[in-house]
Amino acid sequence: MLYRRFGRTELQMPVFSCGGMRYQFKWQDVPESEIPTKNQANLEATIRKAVEVGINHIETARGYGTSEMQLGRILPKFPREKLIVQTKVGPREDAKEFRETFDKSLKYLQLDYVDLLGLHGINTPESLHYSIRPGGCLDVVRQLQAEGKVRFVGFSTHGPTDVIVQTINTNQFDYVNLHWYYINQWNWAAIAAAKRQDMGVFIISPTEKGGLLHKPSQKLVNLCAPLSPIVFNDLFCLSHSQVHTLSLGAAKPEDFDEHLKTLDLVDRASEILPPILARLEAEAIATLGEDWVKTWQDNLPKLEETPGEINIRVILWLWNLAIAYDLVEYGKMRYNLLGNASDWFPGNKSDGLNKLNLHQCLAASPHADKIPRILQQAHELLGGEEVKRLSQQ
């Protein structure tokens, strides 16, 4: 395993982390007696495999159903000083409720403390306010730190880059969990801001959110050769020293195996990546046109400026990925979340275009004339049954 200094925490963080949202029994709390023996055995085997290969960062959240309860059966069996344990609790308007929720997490984990506590889902100015205002959630965390129950505090986010940067610039957090990988590099400004504050940087779900890379399109497989799409994406992320760890949402012990192939390649990233990156860009240009590839994002309206709150930027992005790399299944999964995921994936689909006039909000775009047509094509290609966030299923 390779390790990187996790910002000002000074923790030696493995470049891969064991995420805790895929091996749990249910997304809702249930009595411990209802957890099947087979499910628990699989979780414990997954954790043992992680630790065996050097992945000693175990990451979960109060919102991950039975994950904490199940981890509480296995984590106390390891030497505590050998583990880096993270859980996450969503910001609350009522700081007392935040404290009660954390106390439940710690009880389920059967630990005296967590190394990392993330404020889960600072996605909006409102959730940031709940976190940093006097008497808010961060004040509770400072008390927990004084009590020895939390070592370091960070935040996770699915929010827009400006909110992430604003949160980072408060200088109140030791690390950040965010999205950033080859197909979605929008948050680079946030990573750069975290670097300036000497914060740890943890990449959320690079395999699933990075393109359903565990079941990639054949076209993407061909473009990423000789690497698998998983190894390519891991190497792309880790070739940037500002990135410290990638979350692997393992559902079973074998799910680590493909990722581990990346470790021997990190020192050669500057040699291995350029031909693959060139092929990916060339394919996008060949299928979408160079002018579109280089300027499609220019002067797009903000969500709140768009009639019907159609998430134009995300829809065009998903259409690009579907056309250029055959990531249709991925596009469908993300597109059909729109309208159902609140501030975790905001905005609406483009199914009501015939009732809306986008002319004014697109006036500054160099592609104002073609975007409505592409939005319609995207809905025809990607539209389908509504999708809910995993935690809502």
Summarize the structure.
The chain is an alpha/beta fold and 393 residues long. It has helices at residues 37-52, 67-71, 95-109, 125-132, 137-146, 161-168, 188-196, 218-224, 229-238, 257-260, 269-288, 290-295, 312-325, 328-335, 371-382, and strands spanning 3-5, 12-14, 16-19, 57-59, 84-89, 114-120, 150-156, 175-178, 200-203, 245-248. The protein has an eight-stranded parallel β-barrel, surrounded by five helices.
What does this structure look like?
Residues 37-167 form the NADP-dependent oxidoreductase domain. It comes from Nostoc paludosum FACHB-159. The structure is a single chain. The protein is α/β, with parallel strands linked by helices and 393 residues long. The protein folds into two domains: 3-269, NADP-dependent oxidoreductase domain (TIM Barrel, Alpha-Beta Barrel); 289-392, no CATH class. Helices cover 39% and strands 11% of the residues. The protein has 15 helices and ten strands. It has helices at residues 37-52, 67-71, 95-109, 125-132, 137-146, 161-168, 188-196, 218-224, 229-238, 257-260, 269-288, 290-295, 312-325, 328-335, 371-382, and strands spanning 3-5, 12-14, 16-19, 57-59, 84-89, 114-120, 150-156, 175-178, 200-203, 245-248. Strands 3-4-5-6-7-8-9-10 form an eight-stranded parallel beta barrel, surrounded by five helices. β5, α3 and β6 form a beta-alpha-beta unit. The two termini are 34 Å apart.
